[in-house]
Amino acid sequence: MSTAAPPDGFSTLYRDHHRWLHGWLRRKLNCTEQAADLAQDTFVRLLSRPEPEGLREPRAYLATIAHGLVVNHWRRKALEQAYLEELASRPEVLAPSPEERRLVVEALEEIARLLDGLPARVREIFLLSQLDGLTYAAIGERLGVSINVVQKAMVRATAHCYRALYR
């Protein structure tokens, strides 16, 4: 593992803006610990990118990266909450182990990541088909669209997932 020091520009950016970013995230999340984690994640993301030269608006740059992390955080929380609510509605005998729960949440996060960027209608059609097992005709009837619209949405969603997996 490399122990190379971050570039000087990164160190300056961190020193000058970490406290501000942490405060910005704390106000968005209303949680000091989560804000600290996401502030660190923001700077970790920066380390994997080429050093921005002549960055005129460093706070806007950091806020853009941090905003994406906040969106991912809330998406994960919503997925976990929906999953836990579904588990609570089942008899305890059918409840999965903690390890199985973690695997399911990870799979749900991967599905959400794959579907990120799709229009809401296309994503909904894809999920109705793949998770609920509805036929194209049933999806069309439920959403008030033609089977042709459902087919095109499925092609678009499948191509999108393929690109997300294999690029």
From TrEMBL:
- Where does the RNA polymerase sigma factor 70 region 4 type domain lie? 109-161
- List the GO molecular function terms: DNA binding; sigma factor activity
- CDD domains per record: Sigma70_r4
Name the domain of life this protein comes from.
Bacteria
Q: Tell me which UniProt keywords the record has, alphabetically.
A: Sigma factor, Transcription, Transcription regulation
- For the RNA polymerase sigma-70 region domain, which residue ranges apply? 13-78
Pfam families in the record: Sigma70_r2, Sigma70_r4_2
- Gene Ontology biological process terms from the UniProt entry: DNA-templated transcription initiation
- Name the protein family: Belongs to the sigma-70 factor family. ECF subfamily.
Would you tell me the protein name for this molecule?
Answer: Sigma-70 family RNA polymerase sigma factor
